[in-house]
Amino acid sequence: MLKLKDLTLTSVIEASASAFPHLNAVSTWREPESAMKFPVFLLRSRQIALFLLKKGVSKGDKVAILGESCPNWGLSYLAINRIGAIAVPILPNFSRDEVQSILKHSEAKFVVVNSKNASKATGLDVELIRMDDMHHIQAKALKTFDGNNFKDLEGTDTATFEVDNAALALLEEFRPHEEDLASIIYTSGTTGTPKAVMLTNRNIVYNAYECSTPFIKIHAGWKALSILPMSHVYEFTIGFVLLILNGVQIVYLGKAPSTDSLMPAFKEIQPEVMLSVPLLIEKIYRRALLPKLKDGTKLGKYAKNWFTAPFVYAAIGKKVKTIFGGRMRFFGIGGAAFDSEAEAFFHRIRFPYALGYGLTETSPFIAGCGPKDQVVGTLGPVLKSLDVRLDPESGEIQIKGPSVMRGYFKNDELTRESFTEDGYFRTGDIGEFINGRLAIRGRCKTMILGPSGENIYPENIEFLINAEEDVLESLVVADAGGLTAMIRLDIKALKRKGIVATDQIQIYINNIRKRVNEKLASFSRIGKVEIQEEPFERTPTDKIKRFKYQKKAKSGTPEAK
Predict the structure, then answer these.
(1) Which of 1, 119, 204, 291 has the most CB atoms less than 10 A away?
(2) Does residue 221 sit within a domain?
(3) pTM, full prediction
(4) How many domains does the chain have?
């Protein structure tokens, strides 16, 4: 492990540039000119920092970053941090109105934005730097912006300053401290209400540093494939800061992840490390692997035989590892709950997945373990530096520690509500410890009170529904008659089976309800089912907006038997 001068992002890149001078820090897949070695990455961050100083940005000022993950995204963050300014990461799938609101609320002076999202950031008294090439676009050039030509507008290169002794001395005057704010992150939960989380340098770097050793031995020179938004603290802390700290070369996909882009990328990059949300690997399981193991298939027959099953699953595991490039050592899964059936499968084929649990407010990591220590149904131990307890009445996970946020920006009331009287942060998640390992059982806010006071967690029911064949997504809500499951089906798959008519589809989802109810306690069984024809509305963090569907359940569908 590298020894840092202090727990700041500036110290991370300085130490890494010194320790790994011949390694690439970042690059974009199939764009060799984008590669930057660690010392170059440090140099350019200093040059951009000097430019920001020249333009009047100083310690404590806010600079927003808006765009898909790429080498210049991280470069921008490090430059902002180098002068003690505060980065404001904005999710690229926020709407223009949301972006404008964030820029106003955060009082950002600059925004680093790529061409794809530029139209969301114009029209305010905020200066723009084009992320594509790190050129400052002046007001005169912006007058010719037509919504599509941002990449062609004339600009000034921000990375041309000479970093001599005088420049370094100037930068030292603005050097960030551990307790200085590094970031204000605007999140959007299922309630649709954005919250601005304030994280310090110490919050982020401490979390990355503490996560560097307990799960897997990371080797300098390994490659990581990055597909998640860096505006999520999950990807930023674990998928950027931690990897930079350990000399891992981060390769950005450079496009939206899909089968067409990921398969060749895995083959060419051969990554040892990757972070993902559960949805990606669940899709691989349900669409590519599960159909081959169904009853009636040759492989399915051997998979159910006690003697041949170990050989079948070993062969599948070998094939899956080859698909992912053949060198995968750590496939981190976080950001949402992982389907239990899919997890059991990947555990059985010995795929090197690792579950983690955390929140933006905790920078983010709270609990988890490495691939060799996974136990299906649990996350793993709590990070040693954290003090985690369960509320004796609700079971809510509450946490104290050096990676817990300072609070919510411009919202003292919400900050007070989010902490207990003795200083523990309320996560809003229900958990339990199983042999010292944390397991998540639901959300306080989504919990439904049963007919006799039982606690019903709709996420657990949705897991069972989503495990059913041809189900794309589902949502369980409470209404006057009990529980209603809103189910979105794969209509194309049903058509291939000859299930087309409305009454046929209704019978199909009624059968899903019956099968799921057989696995549930009586108080949490589904009373009604209805077809959800359109995709559920989602937040920018890809969570279903539950609050929009609480009163949409229809009546007249069959009751549970």
Answers:
(1) 204
(2) no
(3) 0.84
(4) 3
